[in-house]
Design brief:
With about 200 residues, the protein is mainly beta. The chain contains one helix and 13 strands, in the order ββββββββαβββββ. The radius of gyration is 18 Å and the shape is elongated.
Length: about 200
Amino acid sequence: MHRRLALGILSLACAGALRAADTYTIDKAHSDVSFTIRHFASRVHGRFADFEGAIQADAAKPEASSVVFTIKTTSIDTNNSNRDNDLRSDGFFDVAKFPEISFKSSKMTSTGKDTYSVTGTLTMHGVSKEVTLPVTFLGSMKDPRGNERASFELNTKLNRKDYGINWNKSLDNGSLMLSDDVDVTVDLETVKKAPEAPAAK
């Protein structure tokens, strides 16, 4: 995203490694959007299988770089079909009404070597909030076909109640079945988009 990407959310920015006006798109086959939530005393892991995004990288002025990222909520997968159906229902993500989670950056700031803060609007379950996401640039290189690739990771914590996802159940000991906080991890491998050929005259 600017020197790297930001997200994931999901995502982010690349700096010295990327050239101005470059566009990087997410390679979904080599990327992952996952989450963890406490369930009773243990933790349940899940992921979203369908997502897309793009990074506009401006190496000359990294703070002008930007990222957009979208997740299809119906693609949620916790390795349990009954639970996944519950999560798609109106008690949780309500995918029929809110089919996407989206992030659009508004500001990027370098916080150290290969680390960035990416601020933007996260929209989920019909609620939009400004968030700042910590992103790490993992490096860039060319693949065997000559495509330039850049990779990023994001680890953050979101409170699901901030986005109106409130369902819970009280237990006999006074505690709740689910935690409010959800740990989110986004690992992205991106590919530089080839420049468009000049229009024929």
